[in-house]
Structures are given as structure tokens and as C-alpha cells.
Amino acid sequence: xxxxxxxxxxxxxxxxLESDETLxxxxxxxxxxxxxxxxxxxxxxxxxxxxxxxxxxxLAANQKQVYHLQWSIWVFVFNIELAPAIQECSxxxxxxxxxxxxxxxxxxxxxxxxxxxxxxxxxxxxGNGMPDAGVVICAEVRLTSELIISTT
Length: 152
Description:
Elements: H1 6-19, E1 27-30, E2 43-53, E3 64-79, H2 82-102, E4 112-115, E5 122-124, E6 135-150
Parallel strand pairs: 1-2
Antiparallel strand pairs: 2-3, 3-6, 4-6, 5-6
């Protein structure tokens, strides 16, 4: 049995999203801080935030362990004006959700995935590294993927 490579799963998810034709022109990052500026957005950041064990699983040899990997995927858009930023963030978020639905096994690295909602486009306050001029809008998509680890 080989130990699971969680980072490899993240990189494969990034590669799948980068190859989606509807998301061309979007910058992607895995576990990185957000980058801002007109030339850097739309920007999607992938973050694996948790690994939850299915209930009532006992550790034993020749058994399997089921985990639910939880992702927080953020879309950021910068624009000088508010309305176009909201519209673009909403558009990219919808395209992201469809791209995730199109490959729910992350190239057979997980059993299945499902969307759990997220936050709707929200304005990010200026300051703390945010641009002084213009508007940054962000939205979150939460994804859960089931991973089965087996000792056999």
C-alpha cells in the first residue's frame, strides 16, 4: 500500500482546472497567498483545509480508511468598478463549479466529489495588502472529495 499524496491530489485538481477551456485566462495557485492587480485576476486559489474520517472506523490491518477531504477554493477578481468586478467573479465562480462537476473523481484519485456551497461574491476591504484603488471581489466554493486508503 502506498501512502496518500494529498499534495499530488491538489496539483491534479489544479491541472484539471487549468486545462478546462472555459477557465482560460484564469490564474491558478495551490496553497499560495492571493495576488492582486488587473493583470493577475481572475485568480483561483486551491486550499485543502481538512481531512475528516468517516464515523465508526476502527484502525486495523488489512482494512480501509475513508476520508472526506475538504477544499476551500477562492475566486478573486479585481476591477476599477464594482459592478464589473461582481459580474466577473460570479461568472468565473459558475464556470469553476461546472468544471469541478465535469471531473468529480479528480482523474480517479478520489472516489467522488460534491459541492457544499460557499460564499457569494463579496467585496474585500481595501488595506492589508489590498489595492488602494479599485475593487476586489471574492467568492468561495467548498468541495468535498472522498478518499479511500486501503492496507491491502
